[in-house]
Amino acid sequence: MMRLKERFSNSQMARAGAAVPVLVVGSPLTAFASGGEAVTKPMTSLLASFTSVAAWMWAEIGKLLTWILDQPILLLAMSLFFVGAIVSFFIRVFHSV
Predict the structure, then answer these.
(1) What's the distance, Cα to Cα, between the start and end of the chain in Å?
(2) Looking at residue 85, what is its pLDDT?
């Protein structure tokens, strides 16, 4: 284990860590380097797709919430969870004062 620590000193780790943002930013640039002949979808179609997916997601969440509220044991479990979250929030707030 000590050999591993000696092999990767802090300065080497810092140099490797500095390369990560360059790779993250530089990687997508090749996608935009084409000659412009590629046909891209307009932003409106992307927005329409996102809106339809979001509407579907909210409809499914509504169905799930309706089903959960119809089950007494699940309603009790969720109530305990939310009451516990509220109590822990107030404990944290008043403990820090």
Answers:
(1) 43
(2) 95
Report which DSSP code applies to 36: S
pLDDT for residue 44: 84
Provide the pLDDT for residue 38.
54
Burial 45-81 (b: 16+ CB within 10 A, else e): eeeeeeeeeeeeeeeeeeeeeeeeeeeeeeeeeeeee
Contact by Cβ (8 Å): 74, 68: yes
Cα 84 to Cα 77: distance, rounded to the nearest angstrom = 11
Residues with Cβ < 8 Å from 69, sequence gap 6 or more?
A: 75
Q: Taking the alpha carbons of 87, 92, 93, 94 in that order, is the dihedral positive or negative?
A: positive
pLDDT, averaged per 10 consecutive residues of the chain (97 residues), comes to: 57 58 57 56 85 94 91 90 94 87
User: What 3-state class would DSSP assign to 35?
Assistant: coil
Tokens of 77: 């479990």
